């Protein structure tokens, strides 16, 4: 199990007691379906939002989530659930303060249709389990009626071409890849307006540049990079030993270009003062722990967003770095099966979305046809 999955599994164990007993039963059911800990945590977050809304609206006598009863779910009306959907659509206007103990800047942002659909899909899964799959000691369903079955989700299914068009504005293409990495190492220093920020950047720029360059040089997931141990590096072959989604062992490659940045970072890795037993490749220090320890996924996501915003592509995220590699790979190596193997995709359809990202290539293909 990867470090990220271990952490999420621990979080799951620590938080499940805050939820009603039937939610714990649902989570156990999903575990038998081999859902990942992060997926299960996503379910809990969506349930938490709904239960807190029920308490705020007086739809339950419970003062804590774990006391929301099955009978209270059983009497919910379709109109009530539709009111919840309306709330999700407008909750940013109130900073979601009623449902969040600590509203953040993101609580002022409007939920996308996809996010709302996901939250409702989570509820539909729970209610379906309670009404159709689970049974009590008498063999009866936990719920006698499933109000969520009456709620239709209207999701616009994007074609691969439309999905690719949405990706194009948020990724790096051609020279932008090298320009962005150069900016992280050299250019961002000019963006630091205090000595403290300058010193922090100088302390971490080899690590940050290597992290980003490695993702861009092999299309790796951020969780895969964060989980790397020194023993997983096969430098002479430009390979990484990984355990991918579905617990699949793999050994994908990275480029010489990425290897140069990784080697530069490894030369200074000891400045993070890691304990002798710390085998993580990418390290961080924190106010509570001055000894180098494995950097977290969330920290990598934040640092990529920081550099991307300063670089002028604010929509660039750590996952879009993976998209950038995939798009560039197909631009220069038109073999989706090779890319499928490199990215660890189980289905070629997933890989093929990158074939449509570059509209100029598609346009030229169309012109060549006639």
TrEMBL record:
NCBIfam families: PRK05084.1. GO terms for biological process: cell division; chromosome segregation; DNA integration; DNA recombination. Residues 167-367 form the Tyr recombinase domain. It is found in: Cytoplasm. The keyword DNA-binding applies. Residues 17-131 form the Core-binding (CB) domain. Its main location: cytoplasm. It comes from the Bacteria. One of its GO terms (cellular component) is cytoplasm. One of its GO terms (molecular function) is DNA binding. Gene3D superfamilies: 1.10.150.130, Intergrase catalytic core. InterPro entries: CB, DNA_brk_join_enz, Integrase-like_cat_sf, Integrase_catalytic, Integrase_recombinase_N, Tyrosine_recombinase_XerCD. Keywords: Cell cycle, Cell division, Chromosome partition, Cytoplasm, DNA integration, DNA recombination, DNA-binding. This is Tyrosine recombinase XerS.
